[in-house]
C-alpha cells in the first residue's frame, strides 16, 4: 500500500489499532485498510515483587499505556506528516490470567496479582476436584478462591474482578466485558453457549456459601463476548486517558479485550479446528484447536478458547531456549579466546544446522534444560544438566541436536497426551519465536516432536499487538456471517508466504527414542534438584 493511500486511511479512519500489555513490553500496532502495519510504538516495563506478590502498579499501567500510544502517534506524524485524530476501531489485550479486584467505588482492593504468581496451589487443586476440569494456578478464579481460603478481608468488598485487559477496557469504555478467549483464563467456558459455565458457577457458589458474602460469582464477573461483537466505544474520559494530548476523538468502537494467547492465535492464523500454534522462546507453549472436548481431565493441559469460541488445549512449559542460548554463548567465548570476532546470527545458524548432521536419536546423549521448575514433569525447581554414558556418540552435531531436542522435551511430554492419549488431530502447526529464527532447523525439530507439518510465516514476528489490531479490524470490516477464520484467510493472510516443513520419518523415530530416554532419566534431574544446592 502506497504512502498516499495510507494517509487517506488515517484521515478517514480506515485503520485499526491494537495495544498489547506483554510481560516486559507494551506494544501498539496501527494497521491500514489492508491490515498491514503502518505505524507502531512501544514502552518497556517490568513487574515488581512486592510482599511476595508479582505485580504492576496502576501508575505503571497507565503511564505505560500513554507512553506507548504517544510513541505510536509520533510514528504516524513522523512518517506521514499528520496527527492521529481518529481510528476505525481499537482493541486491547494483555498477558492472560491474574487477578484485579475492585470495590463498589471502582477502587483496586489489593495489588494486581499477575499470571506469574504461584500462590494458589490449594485453590487450584480443590477447584479442579470440584469442577472435574483443570484449573491452573494462573487462572483468576484460583486467585479469588485462594483469597477466600486465606480469609483475606478484601473479598467481602469485591463487586467486580477481572484481568488486566478487562481492566484497561473497562476504564476506557465503561464496559465490564471480556473476549471469550481471555474469559477462558478466568473461569471455564461452556463451549455450547460461549459463556461462563453455569453449572460450575453454581458449584462455586455452593462451595463458598458458608462465607455468606453479599455477592454470587455471576454478580462480580465480566460479561463474555465473542470476536466480532461490539464491546463499546472510547468514552470522552477514555480518549483522554489513552491520548493525554487530547487529539484523539472519543466514540471510536472497541472490540472485546483479549489475552495474549488468543492474539497469538490470530497473528499466526491458528483459529480454525485442527490447527495450532507454538511459541518457542524463553518459555514455550503450544495451542491446539480441538474438534471436541477431551475425554479426561489432565493437569498438564489447560483448556481455553480461541477469540471466536472454539475449544483449545494449551500446553505451557517454563523452559525452552535459555540453556540452549547459554551453550551457544560458551562457543562464542571459545571463539573469542582465539581472537575471532563472532557474528551471533551466523554462530546460531552454524550450530543449529550442525544438529541436522547428528544421529537421529542424538547418539544416546541426554540433556535437561530446566532453568526453573517444570510442572508437566513434576519439578518445582530446575537444574540444567548434560549427561552421557561412556559409549554415547559424543560429537558436536549430537550435542547441538540433544540441546535442541530437550528444548521441546517437556512440551512433547504434554503434547503426547493430546496427540497419542486423546487422539487429537492437527493438520498444521504454526511456529513463531526465537527457536524458529534460524531458517528450517527449529521447524524440522518441532515437526519431528509432534509428527505434524510446521509452518512459519513472515508476519509471525508482528506478535499479539498486531493480533488484537486484526480483531478490531474484523469487528469493523467482517461481512455478514463471515467467520474469523475466513476473514483471516482471505483478508489478512491471502498471498502471504510461509515455509512449511513436513515431519521426516527418521527424525520422528529419533525424537521418540530421545523422549523415552528423557522420561526414564527424570530421576537424574530429581537428584540434581535435591542435592545440588
TrEMBL record:
Q: What is this protein called?
A: ATPase
Amino acid at each position: 500500500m502506497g504512502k498516499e493511500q495510507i494517509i487517506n486511511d488515517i484521515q478517514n479512519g480506515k485503520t485499526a489499532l491494537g495495544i498489547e500489555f506483554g510481560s516486559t513490553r507494551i506494544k501498539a500496532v496501527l494497521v491500514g485498510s489492508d491490515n498491514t502495519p503502518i505505524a507502531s510504538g512501544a514502552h518497556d516495563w517490568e513487574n515488581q515483587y512486592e510482599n511476595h506478590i508479582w505485580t504492576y502498579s496502576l501508575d505503571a499501567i497507565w503511564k505505560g499505556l500513554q507512553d506507548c500510544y504517544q510513541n505510536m502517534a509520533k510514528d504516524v506524524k513522523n512518517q506521514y506528516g499528520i496527527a492521529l485524530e481518529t481510528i476505525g476501531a481499537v482493541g486491547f489485550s494483555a498477558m492472560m490470567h491474574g487477578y484485579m479486584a475492585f470495590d463498589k467505588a471502582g477502587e483496586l482492593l489489593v495489588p494486581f496479582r499477575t499470571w506469574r504468581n504461584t500462590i494458589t496451589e490449594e485453590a487450584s487443586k480443590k477447584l479442579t476436584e470440584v469442577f472435574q476440569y483443570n484449573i491452573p494456578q494462573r487462572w483468576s478464579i484460583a486467585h479469588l478462591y485462594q483469597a477466600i481460603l486465606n480469609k483475606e478481608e478484601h473479598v467481602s468488598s469485591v463487586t467486580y474482578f477481572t484481568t488486566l485487559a478487562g481492566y484497561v477496557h473497562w476504564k476506557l469504555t465503561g464496559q465490564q466485558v471480556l473476549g471469550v478467549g481471555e474469559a477462558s483464563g478466568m473461569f471455564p467456558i461452556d463451549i455450547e453457549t460461549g459463556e461462563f459455565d453455569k453449572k460450575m458457577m453454581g458449584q462455586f457458589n455452593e462451595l463458598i456459601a458458608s462465607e455468606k458474602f453479599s455477592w454470587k460469582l455471576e454478580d462480580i464477573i465480566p460479561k463474555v463476548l465473542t470476536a466480532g461483537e461490539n464491546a463499546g466505544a472510547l468514552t470522552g474520559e477514555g480518549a483522554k486517558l489513552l491520548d493525554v494530548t487530547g487529539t484523539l476523538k472519543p466514540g471510536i468502537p472497541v472490540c472485546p479485550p483479549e489475552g495474549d494467547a488468543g492474539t497469538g492465535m490470530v497473528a499466526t492464523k491458528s483459529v480454525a479446528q485442527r490447527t495450532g500454534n507454538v511459541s518457542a522462546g524463553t518459555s514455550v507453549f503450544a495451542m491446539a484447536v480441538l474438534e471436541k472436548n477431551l475425554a479426561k481431565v489432565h493437569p498438564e493441559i489447560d483448556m481455553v478458547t480461541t477469540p471466536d469460541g472454539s475449544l483449545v488445549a494449551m500446553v505451557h512449559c517454563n523452559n525452552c531456549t535459555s540453556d540452549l542460548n547459554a551453550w551457544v554463548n560458551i562457543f562464542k567465548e571459545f571463539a573469542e579466546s582465539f581472537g575471532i570476532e563472532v557474528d551471533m546470527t551466523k554462530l546460531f545458524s552454524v550450530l543449529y544446522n550442525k544438529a541436522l548432521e547428528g544421529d537421529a536419536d542424538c547418539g544416546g546423549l541426554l540433556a535437561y534444560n530446566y532453568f526453573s521448575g517444570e510442572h508437566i514433569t513434576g519439578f518445582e525447581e530446575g537444574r540444567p544438566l548434560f549427561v552421557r554414558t561412556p559409549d554415547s556418540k559424543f560429537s558436536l552435531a549430537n550435542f547441538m541436536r540433544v540441546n535442541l531436542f530437550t528444548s521441546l522435551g517437556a512440551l512433547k511430554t504434554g503434547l503426547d497426551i493430546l496427540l497419542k492419549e486423546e487422539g487429537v488431530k492437527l493438520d498444521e502447526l504454526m511456529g513463531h519465536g526465537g527457536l524458529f529464527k534460524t531458517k528450517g532447523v527449529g521447524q524440522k525439530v518441532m515437526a519431528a516432536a509432534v509428527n505434524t507439518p510446521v509452518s512459519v510465516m513472515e508476519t509471525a514476528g508482528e506478535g499479539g499487538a498486531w493480533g488484537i489490531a486484526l480483531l478490531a479490524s474484523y469487528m469493523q470490516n467482517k461481512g455478514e456471517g463471515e467467520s474469523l477464520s475466513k476473514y483471516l484467510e482471505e483478508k489478512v493472510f491471502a498471498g502471504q508466504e510461509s515455509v512449511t516443513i513436513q515431519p521426516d520419518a527418521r527424525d520422528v523415530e529419533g525424537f521418540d527414542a530421545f523422549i523415552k530416554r528423557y522420561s526414564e532419566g527424570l530421576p537424574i534431574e530429581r537428584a540434581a534438584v535435591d542435592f545440588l544446592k
